[in-house]
Amino acid sequence: MPSGGDAPTSRGGSSADAAPETPSPMPIEPEGFGERAGRAAFRPARAAARAWRGPIEQAVDEILSAPEIARVVDRALAGSLPEEIARSLVRHRVLERIAAELAASGELERLVTAALGSPKTLELTDNVLASDETQRVLRHVASSPELRDAITRQTTGLAEEVVGGVRASAVRLDDRAEQIVRRPPRSERPIYGGVATRAIALATDAAVTIVLFMSVVGIAALVASLVGGLRPAWLAGALLASGWMLVVGTYFVLFWSTTGQTPGMRLLRLRVRGLAGETPSIGRSLVRLVGLVLAIGPMFAGFVPVLFTERRRGLPDFLAGTVVLYDDPRA
After folding, report:
1. Quick one: which of 185, 224, 253, 262 has the most CB atoms within 10 Å?
2. pLDDT tens digit string along 111-125?
3. Taking Cα atoms as reference points, which of 306, 266, 272 lies closest to residue 289?
4. How many other C-beta atoms are found inside a 10 Å radius of the C-beta of residue 243?
5. Rounded to an integer, what distance in angstroms lies between the CA atom of residue 312 and that of residue 318?
6. Which pTM value belongs to this model?
């Protein structure tokens, strides 16, 4: 039997050497009676639903297919119900919300891409374009006066813009050329046509007269070929020279004496006037034509006075007593 002093020591050592206790797992509560009772109560309802699903669906189909239901729907659609639904859709912006949702989700783009890339869509497009109705519509549109008028207006507008740009550049060149040789510069914008606008107008008129002369020569050559040709050669040369003088003289004299401007001058908005502002007569136009030929002869020296005189007059103007004015001085 151990002594009284050894007993505490033995108990203390036992408590120090003992292993730590592990926590015991939480006890699993048994399923309650209420839950088991609830599931047991719903089992007959589920079984009844499975058993009655077919008859219920058949009964609903019979009700919806009944003539009375069709008459009710027909009366509703014949009344104000569709308009009310449409107004409600617009008022609440249902369609906009649907479209925004489809666009935000990317579904709309996918649907459109799939529809456009569908073989059925391509086949339908080809059939529509190849149909007689489409061809008839295209021919009607292409031959309509409205389309021709629109094309004419567009072409005229483009040509007017090009000519307007050339005209403005020529007017600026008139002033710059004069400023190079004339001191001091003018205090006001001149109303008389300068050397640049005259040169462009004269070049345009020369091109027009060449076209007219070639047309006359072509007709004359055709007639000569029918009668066996012109003999001798000097006669053909004389006729060509005479024809050229006749075409050029008629061209300039006719336009100067009637409208005061040739087609080239009209493009540049220039006009020939007498010193008193009148349109030149036929005699004055003939004198001006002679002066034009003399001015062109010595390297266009007859137009040099345009750069130095106050009213920008050249040799043709001095001989005929005329001036060349801007048709619209404000331009």
Report:
1. 262
2. 888 888 888 888 888
3. 272
4. 14
5. 10
6. 0.55
